[in-house]
Amino acid sequence: MGQHERRAPALREPRGRDTPRSRPHRAAQARGASWWRGTLRLLPYGFPILYLLQLAMLLGLLMNRSGTLEQAAYAWPALAVCATVGAVAATAVVVARLLALGTYRWRR
Question: Using an 8 Å Cβ cutoff, are 66 and 24 in contact?
């Protein structure tokens, strides 16, 4: 080795709190969580469903007239399709999470 050459520092094994085994897993943390925290995490998925159900009323407020969801879908099909897809996706996420929560609690 020459005079100006340096060796790369040896990679050392992480110790103490840095090891993956020392970090608690999310499932272990969730064991002590109460049911209402899970419910609060599902609340934002209700907004697309609520938006689809109230779309005709919202458009009626903007246009100063009353109408139905069918009329709103005829006038703005892209808006109706996006609202429907968002509501279906939010419903699928809520159902999947509730099923996973049910099977997780059933296994314990």
Answer: no
pLDDT digits (tens, 9 = 90+) for 59-92: 888 888 888 888 888 888 999 999 999 999 999 9
> Can you give the C-alpha Rg of the chain in angstroms?
26
Euclidean distance between CA atoms 83 and 29, whole angstroms: 35
Instruction: Please give the Cα distance from 58 to 47 (Å, whole number).
Output: 14
Spatial neighbors of 12 by CB under 8 A, at least 6 apart, are none
Using DSSP's 3-state secondary structure scheme, residue 3 falls into coil
| Chain-centre distance for alpha carbon 95 | 12
